[in-house]
């Protein structure tokens, strides 16, 4: 399946491409972002970290049909990558994202998250979305709360910032569509 470009009021979500790696390399390796990433993320982030991730993880997983990645861009400055959001068809980890610090706190990730979550349910026709996160990541928790998700489990997990409480949040397609005024498929 070809990943479409998604449009929101302020954002353009373009399918991730190999040539996004240089901007990811500039925007991603900041403690404010990586401290809440799983411990498998190398830290300090290597000079070729983004290139390795895009070419050896993200794009191959897209080709396998188990992942959908978008580069988040401002509709008025489409050459400028602000962050990345993805969907994964794996148990208990269906959505992940990061946003460069200078764009945080302005509602961009909530806007991107709404668009890709709707894509998950109403294009990919998935029945359930689960999103793990560090409990200390208050902004990510707010996005889940505001979109109608509920916390279903808390456990310890290793993150770049150390072992922390980790939460799994979920919402069903029927709950999502009822909340957003859409009819679910039978």
- Shape label: globular
Beta-strand content? 25-35%
Q: Cα distance, first to last residue? A: 23 Å
**Total helical segments:** 6
Radius of gyration: 16 Å
Q: Classify the helix fraction into a percent range.
A: 25-40%
Q: What composes the largest sheet? A: 5 strands, antiparallel
Structure write-up:
The chain has 186 residues and is α+β, with helices and mostly antiparallel strands. Helix content is 31%, strand content 32%. The chain is globular. The protein starts with 5 loop residues before the first strand and ends in a 7-residue tail after the last helix. The relative contact order is 0.15.
Brief write-up:
With 186 residues, the protein is of the alpha+beta class.
Keywords, separated by commas or semicolons:
alpha+beta, five-stranded antiparallel sheet, 6 helices
Protein topology:
Elements: E1 6-7, E2 11-15, H1 21-27, H2 31-34, H3 49-64, E3 67-74, E4 77-88, E5 95-99, H4 108-122, E6 128-134, H5 138-146, E7 150-159, E8 162-172, H6 173-179
Antiparallel strand pairs: 1-2, 2-3, 3-4, 4-5, 6-8, 7-8
């Amino acid at each position: 399946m070809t990943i479409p470009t998604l449009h929101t009021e302020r954002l353009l979500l373009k399918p991730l491409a190999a040539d996004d790696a240089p901007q990811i390399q500039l925007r991603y390796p900041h403690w404010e972002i990586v401290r809440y990433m799983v411990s498998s993320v190398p830290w300090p982030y290597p000079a070729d970290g983004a290139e390795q991730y895009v070419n050896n993880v993200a794009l191959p997983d897209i080709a396998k049909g188990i992942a959908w990645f978008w580069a988040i861009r401002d509709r008025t400055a489409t050459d400028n990558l602000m962050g990345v959001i993805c969907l994964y068809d794996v148990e208990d980890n269906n959505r992940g994202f990061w946003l460069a610090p200078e764009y945080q706190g302005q509602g961009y990730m909530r806007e991107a998250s709404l668009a890709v979550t709707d894509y998950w349910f109403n294009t990919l026709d998935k029945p359930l979305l689960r999103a793990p996160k560090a409990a200390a990541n208050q902004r990510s928790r707010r996005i889940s709360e505001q979109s109608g998700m509920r916390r279903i489990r808390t456990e310890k997990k290793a993150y770049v910032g150390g072992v922390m409480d980790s939460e799994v949040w979920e919402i069903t397609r029927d709950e999502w569509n009822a909340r957003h005024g859409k009819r679910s498929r039978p």
